[in-house]
Amino acid sequence: MEHGQDIPAQPKSRGRRVADSRAVEVASRVGLCARGVIYVLVGILAVRIGLGSDSGQEADRSGAVGTLGEQPFGRALLWALVVGLAAMALWRLSEAAFGQTVEGGDKWSRRLGSLGMAVFYAVICIGVVQTALVGGSAGGRPGDETSKEYTARVLDWPGGRVIVGVFGVVLIVVGVVILVRSLMRKFEKNLRTDEMRPATRRVVAILGIVGGAACGVVAAGAGLSVLLAAVRYDPDQAKGLDETLRSFAATPAGPALLIAAAVGLLLFGLYSFCEARWRKAAEHGTPAEQPTGAADPGTRPGAP
Fold first, then answer.
1. Which ranges does the record mark as transmembrane (predicted)?
2. Fewer CB within 10 Å, N- or C-terminus of the chain?
3. pLDDT in tens, 31-60
């Protein structure tokens, strides 16, 4: 065999082809739009609370769903949200099963993270389905009430305090990681920034930095409340998104901190739409076999 002869790479497995398929790409973009809708609505509700015009809706997923259901053609909008959330869950599930389309995407930590997100969005999707079926606008049970109930159940398990405490620590760590990665603009690795105009790129960067930082702070705050629930053996300490946001108003910064966090969540929702538009995707229509070295590994899409 000649030394310069290329050696063909192994054909893609069926699972890898599914993960890189056009259908999964579409699911990811639809799911990101659904995420954007939820965070924009949560941000708007939280801003209203910070300004003192509390409409009674909770600034969390249930409040967002309730607000959507109150609009004209509310039930149709809810079913559209169901489709988007289901697409998001399936996309994350494909990443958990086949790995992410990024260098190092097969690491167990990345797969486990994708699995956790798949379960998270599947649970939200089921809640929206229940609301859409009954045709109500309440958005289901308040998130704070649900958080306290689940925390109380787990605390009663053998070793329940340890489980709750570990979950709280994990949530804190996740929040800090999101905050740091947002400030370092790591999210830009996922985007086709070369297709953006300079002004557009600056706007998207601001949305990603501020929005991601807000999500990180809120996640860490919720994790701290769960950790306190374990330490004090008091499920009432566990806060959902709404109560976590409201607790910001009790700080020395007052309602200003709540409004800042609310605006940040709203901006993250807008960033989600930008990510749906410019997110990098796997190449489609390429041959199943390619010569070794034919593709530059540096051009692989970024991590989610």
1. 32-53, 73-91, 112-133, 162-183, 204-233, 253-274
2. N
3. 999 999 999 999 998 898 888 776 566 777
